[in-house]
Write a structure and sequence with these properties.
Elements: H1 2-6, E1 14-21, E2 24-32, H2 39-44, H3 54-62, E3 65-71, E4 74-82
Antiparallel strand pairs: 1-2, 2-4, 3-4
Length: about 80
C-alpha cells in the first residue's frame, strides 16, 4: 500500500500477483503510469529513518528477496518469501 500511496503519478489500477509453489511465495505488484523511483534512495533506506523508508525496511525484513524493475512508466516490485 505504501508503494502505491507514495509513488508519483499512477494510473487508477494496479496489478497484484500472488504465486505459491511448494516452499515459496512470490508477491508481484505492478504500478502503472508512475514516474521513475529514485532507486539509489531505495537502496540507501536499509533501515527506517525519520525522513522515510519504513515501507522498504518492512518489505526487506519480511521478504527473503526483494527486487524492483522500472520500464516504460511501470514499476514492478517482486518479493519472494521462503515458506519454512
Amino acid at each position: 500500500m505504501n508503494l502505491v500511496r507514495h509513488n508519483r503519478g499512477g494510473a487508477d489500477s494496479i496489478e497484484l500477483l500472488l504465486e505459491r509453489v511448494p516452499g515459496r511465495l512470490t508477491v508481484r505488484l505492478q504500478d502503472f503510469d508512475v514516474e521513475s523511483p529514485d532507486m539509489a534512495e531505495i537502496e540507501r533506506n536499509r533501515v527506517a529513518t525519520p525522513s522515510g523508508g519504513l515501507g522498504v525496511h518492512i518489505a526487506r525484513t519480511l521478504a527473503d528477496s526483494l527486487a524492483y524493475e522500472y520500464d516504460e512508466r511501470t514499476l514492478t516490485v517482486t518479493a519472494t518469501m521462503n515458506l519454512r
